[in-house]
Amino acid sequence: MDSSPRGGPWKGLFRGRGKASSPMIVFRGVRKSFGSIPVLRGVDLEVSPGETLTVLGRSGTGKSVLVSMLVGLERPDEGSICIGGVEVSRFKREEDWYPLRMKIGFLFQGSALYDSMTVLENVAFPLIHRGDLSREDVLSLVRRRLRQVELDESVEEKYPSELSGGMQRRVALARTLMLSPKILIYDEPTAGLDPITSDGIGQLIRHIQRRSRATSVVVTHDVRLAARVSNRVAVLEEGRVIQVGPLAELVRSDHAGVRAFFRRSGGRGETRGPLRV
Ligand SMILES: Nc1ncnc2c1ncn2[C@@H]1O[C@H](COP(=O)(O)OP(=O)(O)O)[C@@H](O)[C@H]1O
Ligand SMILES: [Mg+2]
Predict the structure, then answer these.
(1) pLDDT per residue over 64-106, tens digit each?
(2) Average pLDDT score over the chain
C-alpha cells in the first residue's frame, strides 16, 4: 500500500476536492458504548474547512471518545465519520489511517509528553521517520515551532518535569504542529491550568488558527476558552449534540439542556469571570 500522504486514494485530499463548502469533518449518527454503558447515542456534527468548532460538555460526556475517533483510536459501533470526504469509519486496517494521521495534529488531554525525553526530543519526535533530515535541519524546525508557541531555546535541553504546566502544554502544542497539520484537535487544552495561563494558551490557539487556517476541533468544559477560540460551539449532553451555533447564540438558548450546561459551568466558576461573547 502506498502510505504517502500524496499517493493513492489520498491524492488531492484537502486540496480542492469537492465543493469549497463541503465539510471537512462529518459525524453521522455516531454511537459508542463501553460494555452496557452507552456513551455516544447518535452524534451528528459537521466541521467546515478552516473553521474552529468547540465541543463543550461536562466531564465524562464522551468528548475525548468522540475526538479519538478522528485518529482511529476509538471506532464507532454505529454511524459514519468522514474526513476530507473519506469515510474513515469503514477503515478495516490500522495502516489505512497512516496517511491521514500525518495530516492531523492531536493535542492530547494533559500534554502526554515523554518524561524521559528532553523538550527538543519531544518536539522532534514526529520527524523520527524522516531519515532524510540532518541534525541541523531538525534543530531549525524544532526552534521554529518553539518560537511559534512563544518558548525560547533555553527550554530545549530541559525535561518536561522541569517545566510549568503552561510550558508543558506549549511544548506539546509545538510537537502537535511539527508536521504542519491541516486538521488540529485540542483535547482539553487548558485543563488543570490556572486562569491566567489558560488565557495565554487560548490566545496562542487563536493565533495558530489564524496563521495555519487549519480546520480545528477544540474539546473543553471551559466556556471562557470556547469564547476565545471558536467560530461555532456544539454542546454535547447525554451522548448527543444538543445544539450547535455561535457561542453568543448558545448562551441565550431556550434549550433546557444548553441552559443547564451554562448554568452549571457558571456555578462551578469555569467561565472564570464575566463572559463576553
Ligand atoms: N476505553 C474505555 N473503556 C471503558 N469506558 C470508557 C473508555 N473510554 C471512555 N470510557 C467512558 O466513557 C465516558 C466518556 O469518557 P470521555 O470521553 O473520556 O469523557 P470526557 O472527555 O467528556 O470527559 C466515561 O464514562 C468513561 O469512563
Ligand atoms: Mg476528556
Answers:
(1) 999 999 999 999 999 999 999 999 999 999 999 999 999 999 9
(2) 88
pTM over 0.85: yes
Q: For ligand 1, pick from 27, 31, 34 the residue to mutate: most ligand atoms within 8 Å of CB.
A: 34
The model's confidence at residue 128, banded by pLDDT at 50, 70 and 90, is confident
Which three three-digit cell numbers place residue 16?
480542492
Query: In terms of residues, how long is the chain?
Result: 277
225 in Cβ contact with 218 (< 8 Å)? yes
| Cβ–ligand 1 contact at 63 (below 6 Å) | yes
Give me the domain span that covers residue 75. 21-103+181-272
Q: For residue 109, is it within any domain?
A: no
Q: Whose CA is nearest to atom 24 of ligand 1?
A: 60
**160 and 87 fall within a common domain:** no
Q: Are residues 265 and 187 in the same domain?
A: yes
Tally of domains within the chain: 2
% of the chain at pLDDT higher than 70: 88
Would the CB of 104 count as within 6 Å of ligand 1? no
Query: Which of 149, 180, 211 is the endpoint of a domain?
Result: 180
Report the nearest-CA residue for atom 26 of ligand 1. Answer: 60
Here the CATH number for the domain that contains residue 86 is 3.40.50.300
Strand order in the sheet with 240-245: 104-107, 183-187, 215-220, 52-56, 232-237, 240-245
